[in-house]
Amino acid sequence: MRRILIVLGVMAVGLGLFALGYFSKIILMHLYQPRVLAHVDGIAISDAELKRETLFLKVSENAGLSDITREDVLNRLINDRLILNEAGRLGLTVSKEAVENYLKSFWENYSSQEVNNLLREHQLSASAWREIIRRRILIEKVIKQAVESQVHITQDEVEEYYWTHLLEFYRRQQVQARQIVVETLAQAESLRNKLDEGADFKSLAAEYSLGPEKDKGGDLGWVGKSDLPRVFSQVLFKMRAGEISKPVATEYGYHLFLLEARKKGGKISLEQARDQIAGNLKINKIEQAFQIWMEDLRARAKISIENIRGVK
260: which of 130, 176, 184, 234 fits an S-S bond (Cβ 3.0–4.6 Å)? Predict the structure, then answer.
């Protein structure tokens, strides 16, 4: 009899724990239901989506959370919803292959462990990340079809821009150079002797230079006279391509320069500038067309926004 009572007691405790767990889940589901922040044509946008989008921006665009306001993210989600609705109207979709190719490209410099750690750190599951990417690709497809494909730049527009912005099309004289910086004249002369004997300038710069560009073999890149201290430009712009300077004394030490190439200054012709102008004009025109298109979508939609203060 005692054994039966013990068994019945254990069963009662088990059933009690089961019931507690079951009803706790129900209670938690009710307590933590996502809060609706907005409706777009009858489709709800929740605080969970807001949080997920904020985390996505932090991962994909290296944005600090302090730089992103909740209002900005919600506004972005509303625009996205309107564009996704347009995708349905236009019959546009995104294949699994397109999503996988995008992910492969996005994570090409990360190991699988690093990917998992990054997603876990930002509380994003792999499936949630894939869905976000699918939506982003779909949004880009809609914008290309509905906006970008409608924007065209004429030759008259290109020529008008060129002749009204002539000052933009005068190229400065530039040189591409490398330098080695050392503390003493004796060190500079010793390195100059090695260079005269055929030593590699980049290797010596990486080994001996005190300059901040030593890890790039002393590369100063393409520079104009106004980009350099006067003492540098006076030397570099008198050198020939391939020439190595004598030691040049400055407050930083002693410099050896290698002039690798030079570009002549002067006016850039319309034909030389045509593609660049057309590209820039198209970007500006697309941005303007997108704003007009987006305003039209919002004007035709039924949008209601709740007070999102206090949403984290």
Answer: 176
Whether the Cβ atoms of residue 177 and residue 235 lie closer than 8 Å to each other:
no
What are the tokens at 186?
A: 């004796």
Q: Residue holding tokens 């298109």?
A: 293
Return the closest-CA partner of residue 180 out of 160, 199, 156.
199
* C-beta of residue 173 within 8 angstroms of C-beta of residue 180: no
Nearest in space to 239 (alpha carbons), one of 253, 223, 215: 223
Tell me yes or no: is domain 36-151+291-305 CATH 1.10.4030.10.
yes
* Tens-digit pLDDT profile for residues 291-306: 999 999 999 999 998 8
Per DSSP, helices labelled H in the chain are 2-31, 47-61, 70-90, 96-106, 112-121, 126-146, 155-164, 185-196, 201-208, 230-236, 270-300
State pLDDT tens for residues 211-259.
Answer: 999 999 999 999 999 899 999 999 999 999 999 999 999 999 999 999 9
pTM of the model: 0.63
Environment class of 2 (CB within 10 Å of its CB; exposed 0-12, middle 13-18, buried 19+): exposed
173-264: CATH topology? Chitinase A; domain 3 (3.10.50)
Nearest to 240 by CA among 171, 172, 177: 177
Q: Do domains 36-151+291-305 and 173-264 have the same CATH topology?
A: no
Burial class for 113, CB neighbours closer than 10 Å (0-12, 13-18, 19+): exposed
* Secondary structure letter of residue 66 according to DSSP: G
Q: Name the 3-class secondary structure at 49.
A: helix
Residue 155 backbone dihedrals phi, psi, to 5 degrees: -65, -30
Query: What residue type is 37 in one-letter code?
Result: L
Identify which of 183, 105, 160 has the alpha carbon closest to the alpha carbon of residue 273: 160
